[in-house]
Amino acid sequence: MPDVVVSPATTQEVVAVVKTCSKMQVPMIPYGGATSIEGHLLAPLGGCSIDFSRMNAVKRLSKEDHDVTVQPGLGYLELNEMLKEHGMWFPLDPGPGASLGGMCSCSCSGSTAVRYGTMKDNVLSMTVVLADGQEVKTSSRAKKSSAGYDLTRLFVGSEGTLGIITEVTLKIHKIPAYSNSVRVSFDSIDAAAKTVQDTLAAGIQIGRAELLDDTMVQVLNKANNTRHREATTLLFELSGESPGSVADAQRAVLALAKKRGGGKPHVATNPEECRELWRQRKEALWSLMGLYPELECMTTDVCVPVSRLSDLIGQSKRELDASRLPAPIVAHAGDGNFHALIMFDRTNPADVAEADRLSSFMVHKALEMEGTCTGEHGVGVGKIKYLPEEHGDGAMHTMRVIKRGLDPGGLMNPGKVLAHRRDPQTGRLVLCA
Ligand SMILES: Cc1cc2nc3c(=O)[nH]c(=O)nc-3n(C[C@H](O)[C@H](O)[C@H](O)COP(=O)(O)OP(=O)(O)OC[C@H]3O[C@@H](n4cnc5c(N)ncnc54)[C@H](O)[C@@H]3O)c2cc1C
């Protein structure tokens, strides 16, 4: 728990909080929608939690330029409610309840990244308050710029460890005029993953390509009282500006699925049915937790080049099925990214060790395949141990140089991304080597 919580309403108030914390050597932990899952919001060294719920305004909207400037506490769901009346949306979809500041900080993405990219591709500029209280505008509103170091992308994904975001300018997109959702099941996870690979290789434009393993379909059937075939399943969204373009893409995807042994597809064209399908997918984690109320969930987040997904997901599935812990899989298959949701009893050391073993198995396999330990959730506390193996000495040294340069007192969300400890002699926070 932090020692104190503050709720600023303006950038000036954030500056005042930061200056006070820096002077008093108090760690600062920005707090957005609180949907992050790697212990990002913990205060292992105490400190001040900075709650952004009062900074939730839309500052400006440009339909002509397709961009919007918002305060960081605004939720993406609320932003989309507002944009809907203009026929626009911000397509990234992490956990329901996430704020745009938290989403920038975690470099999140979600089911639509296969078409729209991640936060790194969708933030034009930010205002950030540095550890010394200085306010920095990272870039202009221009769609591209070669003017100097890319500060925007330095802060996107920095998890509150380099500065505090007080304003964000985002790209927004037109809501596609037509969209269908397709559900097709397979006898093997390999065939499903390869179908997604084939779809991307064929250049078919897809809005989403999500994979559920048989165990996850069972969970969703129980939670939503549905009776879908309990086998590995792909969910596609196909969207475009004419019914013909959507129908063409749908035909092409279904032909590829059939070649890989896909079963009889179900196509949803009714917007209500499509929304319901994607709601069930988005709430998969909560459906699972509802079935095991006494257990905790360790969510893994490995990501590999798409050509390696079938190999990694196949090896992981065999390991998970052999374990006594329930661990269904959901994948943003179009990005080579998947989550095993490992359920365990945290009061049972054998369960904790087994969940750790499974997670570490997947991370090491992903790194062998030139992948990453986290595709979208971020490092927080949980993934710190994997960074040296993923990045090597040179990159780790560079990250520490950046951290020391921008936050010499180590007060910005300490103990996340890079490990910190308190020096017993001086009481100061220092970066661990
Ligand atoms: C059911 C569920 C589904 C999810 N699905 C996805 C998914 O599909 N894709 C995905 O990418 N993620 C997903 N997530 C994870 C989560 O939603 C994302 O990581 C999201 O980006 C976190 O945003 P938040 O506002 O909740 O951040 P928080 O949890 O509040 O904070 C996250 C980090 O951002 C920092 N931070 C917050 N505000 C600021 C600020 N103003 N300035 C600087 N730093 C700040 C915090 O200090 C912390 O380090 C899911 C989570 C859940 C629970």
From TrEMBL:
Enzyme Commission number: 1.1.2.4
EC category: oxidoreductase
Top-rank taxon: Eukaryota
Cofactor or coenzyme needed: FAD
InterPro entries cross-referenced by the UniProt entry: FAD-bd_oxidored_4_C, FAD-bd_PCMH, FAD-bd_PCMH-like_sf, FAD-bd_PCMH_sub2, FAD-linked_Oxase-like_C, Oxid_FAD_bind_N, Vanillyl_alc_oxidase_C-sub2
Keywords of this entry: FAD, Flavoprotein, Mitochondrion, Oxidoreductase, Transit peptide
Subcellular location: Mitochondrion
Entry keyword Mitochondrion: yes
Biological process according to GO: lactate catabolic process
Entry-linked PROSITE patterns: FAD_PCMH
Protein name according to UniProt: D-lactate dehydrogenase (cytochrome)
